[in-house]
Design brief:
single chain; 899 residues; alpha/beta; eight-stranded parallel barrel; elongated; binds adenosine-5'-diphosphate; binds magnesium ion
């Protein structure tokens, strides 16, 4: 393989080989846009370098020299010349851009002789020496690893001595002095003279760029952003003739987007600096001027920039992010790539592109990063302000959006503080969270945990509630006793402000301003296009009337999963629910009664049973009324669309207080609770007494729930509201289980039809989340009127992974060691879980060919899983309300990609 390609000779389609930057430079060269000559050393060379124990391939520098000669011919400049020196930049660039992660060196080729050549040639000693000091600083930092602050201190001192605040005002003497000092800094650091021969400089620079590929920053970035080897494998090195934005006031450098990257308007947006070099803008060393000012300052160049933007955008059919430099009035392009934009801008530009007849509707839908659309519904960090704040730590971005508020470490305190002052903004900070902590989720703006991964309890619950969440901050130590947390030497106490960015995982000290979410006016248009091409139905996982309303607003066509237990999470309701659980199990008392012979004891037992039953019935009735009201509101919000209501699923002990809370109870109460907790304790709760098993052993709970659905429906029917509930049974593994509950349902139904004199049409169906259910779906389909895959539990069962344990104990390691590429809890594992789903679908549809089969579970909002569902002929996917836009666009994209 050829190790090096000149920009004009490279195959610019091959980004894997050339890296994104190299490919862009080569494509622009082919388009005859003004790009200074250069060449790309391929990513293959980078890989060889590592195979070779970090040594460059033998012939590489010979090839490099040949290519330098080619540049000499094109530019008329000479390498290592005392009269007209050729200077180059050495730039990193992998297939996937990794902003700020790898290194670039500018002005390479300067030494004590060539700097004089540059002075003579340009007649501009200030410029020559400014370039030289920049070179030594960048080279020292990148190649030798000298700390930037050392150089900056010298720079600051020089400015102070000369009495100026601006880099560009330093005079020649100051600059010469700086160069001497800089060289000394490098010499002290390396214990050798600063390399003067350009060839040696170049070789060291190339090696340094290759090294930066495995630098800590870069490795971490790839890990966090899931950049695997098939996405980017090694960095390329681009060696390019320098053009100078620092040659005076007719020179400049800048970065622009061809359309506004925040709101998508069709105008160039960006910043530039006069008399500066590229890294000044990128590093933010000086504050840039708005690009619109260039129109007056350098009208000719502005016009060229505008035309280049148009040309590149038309060529790539995509918004571009461009770097440019103006050298004494001459305009150059230095980089182009597909712009990263806000979700808002993606939506607007997609609709505009179609209006402008730029791309087809299908292309306009396909280009949107579906995953990012969740942003539309959450506040985001104000990028302009964030620089002013100190970072506390970084964790895993578990639920998108940004939130600021005061840190609170205790669940009870969070609830109490918010009750006292409902306007208080709280960020709940915990090691991890459990179901009993959920009451604190409601008053909190965001959740931060030091442990857990993307499917930890905190992440799941926060996501379904649409609250920002950062988990797995391993550096964060939470101290409940002292009410504080510490990370990287910084302490945050209860009541002090922090900000979490659930989209990036960043955590800041203080209150970083956020920007309110706004849905673009283009959204309904995109939605209508998507609805036309997609086949999959999109429903929401919504447990409360508010969720239902929100889901409807974003375009959900029904509810695929309404978890009845979530209704009991609010603090006041939790109490009632616990009361029900605490009501003594009369079954046991009845057993005792059967064997009891003492007359007196029997009497006592009978009255106790009576009392407990009444108590229990009373609580259940109260719960029934609460549920009826909730169901009615949810059904109303989803008028005309199906609402799938799942009966109680989790094991009962999940609702009982933790041992920590027990400790704070009064002794008598504590004893009672302890006893019940012990009775309900299980070795393997996820595979224990839950779902349909609860329904069979505590039939009055399921019966109450079914009644509530009928009551709610009757209420709405009378008001002529088209309510379409369906009842779904969790954890079913056999037809016998399903039929057992069906008979309860049938009894309630005939009761209710008599009571209300209405013929009800309320479908009765089952979840497929137990392996046996998938395998016997042909039997289940005889009773079930619909199926819904619970892919979370199904994945647990198929892998024999308990999700919580997998997340915290070994999944990360599995990914690192490439045993698993992605977590199966995030994207459906097609070959295992997917295959089992195929079996479930085909066996079920053999009995009922038009059987409605959906999926609910985290996977319903995941674009890759949605693609799988499209192909597997699933009827609909159900996702959290905040994932609805993502799911709709992903469903459309799945249909388009299969066209
Ligand atoms: P990054 O990928 O971090 O942006 P770049 O390789 O693009 O790094 O370079 C950093 C800065 O240096 C950019 O502003 C770029 O425009 C500028 N730059 C790079 N090469 C040259 C060159 N040959 N002439 C002038 N400026 C350059
Ligand atoms: Mg760049
Ligand atoms: Mg389940």
């Amino acid at each position: 393989m050829k190790p090096i390609y000149a920009f004009e000779d490279a195959d610019s389609k091959n980004r894997m080989l050339l890296g994104g930057k190299g490919a862009g430079l080569s494509e622009m060269t082919r388009m005859k846009l003004p790009v200074s000559p250069g060449f790309t050393i391929t990513t293959e060379v980078c890989n060889k370098y590592y195979e070779n124990k970090e040594r460059l391939p033998k012939n590489l520098m010979v090839e490099v020299s040949k290519n330098i000669s080619k540049i000499e011919k094109k530019t008329g400049k000479k390498w290592n010349s005392n009269t007209n020196p050729l200077l180059v930049s050495v730039r990193s660039g992998a297939a996937k851009s990794m902003p700020g992660m790898m290194d670039t060196i500018l002005n390479l080729g300067l030494n004590d002789q060539t700097v004089i050549g540059l002075t003579k040639k340009t007649n501009n000693p200030r410029f020559a020496w400014d370039s030289y000091r920049r070179f030594i600083q960048l080279f020292g930092k990148v190649v030798f690893g000298v700390k930037d602050t050392k150089f900056n201190n010298v720079l600051k001192a020089a400015k102070k001595k000369q009495g100026t605040e601006d880099d560009s005002e330093l005079d020649v003497d100051s600059l010469k002095h700086i160069v001497t000092k800089y060289k000394k800094i490098c010499k002290n650091h390396t214990k050798r003279k600063f390399p003067t021969r350009p060839n040696e400089q170049l070789q060291l620079a190339i090696e340094a760029v290759f090294k930066s590929w495995m630098g800590e920053r870069a490795v971490l970035y790839r890990e966090k952003n899931k950049i695997s080897k098939d996405i980017a494998n090694g960095t390329a090195v681009n060696v390019q003739t320098m053009v100078f934005g620092n040659m005076g006031n007719d020179s400049a450098t800048g970065v622009v987007f061809t359309r506004n990257e925040t709101d998508g308007t069709n105008e160039i947006s960006g910043d530039y600096l006069t008399n500066a070099q590229g890294e000044d803008v990128v590093a933010g060393a000086r504050t840039g001027k708005d690009i619109s000012k260039l129109r007056n300052e350098m009208p000719k160049s502005y016009d060229e920039l505008r035309k280049a933007c148009k040309k590149l955008e038309t060529h790539f059919r995509e918004v571009q992010d461009i770097e440019f430099t103006i050298e004494q009035g001459k305009f150059y392009l230095l980089q182009t790539r597909t712009a990263k934009m806000t979700a808002f801008a993606w939506c607007k530009t997609s609709v505009d592109f179609v209006k402008e007849k730029f791309v087809s509707k299908d292309k306009a839908l396909a280009r949107i990063p579906a995953e990012q659309l969740e942003e539309l519904l959450h506040p985001i960090i104000d990028k302009k302000e964030v620089k002013k704040f100190k970072s506390l730590t970084k964790g895993i971005n578990a639920a998108p959006g940004a939130a600021n508020g005061i840190a609170v470490f205790d669940v009870k305190r969070a609830v109490a503080m918010s009750d006292a002052n409902p306007k208080l903004k709280i960020i709940l900070v915990r090691d991890e969270t459990k179901p009993e902590d959920v009451p604190a989720f409601f008053p909190s703006k965001g959740i931060l945990t030091s442990e857990g991964g993307k499917s930890s309890h905190a992440a799941l619950v926060a996501r379904s509630m649409g609250k920002p969440c950062v988990v797995g901050c391993s550096e964060l130590k939470v101290d409940y006793e002292r009410k504080k947390c510490v990370a990287n030497g910084t302490t945050v106490r209860e009541g002090e402000s922090i900000t979490i960015d659930g989209s990036s995982g960043n955590v800041f000290v203080g209150e970083v301003p956020t920007i309110k979410p706004k849905i673009p006016i283009e959204w309904p248009i995109l939605l209508s296009w998507a609805q036309k091409v997609k086949r999959l139905g999109i429903r929401a996982n919504a447990d409360t009337p508010d969720d239902a309303k929100r889901a409807r607003k974003y375009g959900a066509e029904g509810i695929g999963l309404c978890r009845t237990e979530r209704m009991f999470n609010a603090a006041d309701r939790q109490r009632t629910f616990v009361e029900m659980i605490m009501a003594e199990d009369v079954g046991k008392l009845k057993e005792k009664l059967e064997t009891e012979e003492n007359k007196f004891e029997r009497k006592q037992l009978e009255s106790k049973i009576n009392l407990e039953e009444r108590k229990r019935r009373k609580v259940l009735e109260k719960l029934g009324r609460l549920m009826k009201n909730d169901f009615a509101q949810i059904l109303k919000a989803m008028e005309g669309y199906k609402v799938t209501i799942r009966l109680l699923d989790p094991p009962l002990h999940e609702f009982l207080p933790s041992s920590e809370k027990l400790r704070h109870m009064k002794p008598k109460k504590r004893k009672e609770f302890r006893q019940r907790v012990n009775e309900l304790k299980e070795v393997n709760p996820m595979m224990g007494h839950r779902g349909v098993r609860l329904g069979i052993t505590y039939p009055d709970i399921y019966e109450t729930q079914i009644r509530a659905v009928f009551d709610a429906t009757a209420k709405l029917v009378r008001k002529k509201i088209n309510a379409k509930p369906q009842i779904m049974i969790p954890q079913v593994g056999s037809i016998e289980e399903l039929n057992h509950i069906k008979s309860i349902y049938d009894n309630v139904k005939s009761d209710m039809e008599k009571k209300y004199k209405i013929k009800f049409k309320i479908n009765f169906g089952t979840m497929l989340e137990v392996v046996r259910a998938c395998l016997t779906s042909n039997e289940l389909a005889k009773t079930a009127e619909f199926f819904s895959f619970g892919t979370n539990d199904l994945t647990q069962a198929v892998f024999s992974f308990s999700r919580e344990d997998a997340e915290s104990k070994f999944l990360e390691e599995y990914k690192k060691k490439e045993i698993l590429e992605t977590s199966p809890f995030q994207s459906i594992d097609e070959s295992g879980v997917g295959d089992l789903m195929d079996i479930g679908i085909s066996r079920g549809r053999k009995i009922k060919s038009d059987l409605e089969i959906g999926i609910c579970g985290e996977h319903g909002g995941d674009p890759d899983s949605i693609k799988f569902c499209h192909t597997a002929d699933i009827s609909y996917v159900s996702a959290s309300p905040y994932r609805i836009p993502v799911a709709i666009i992903a469903a459309a994209q799945a249909a388009i990609s299969k066209k």
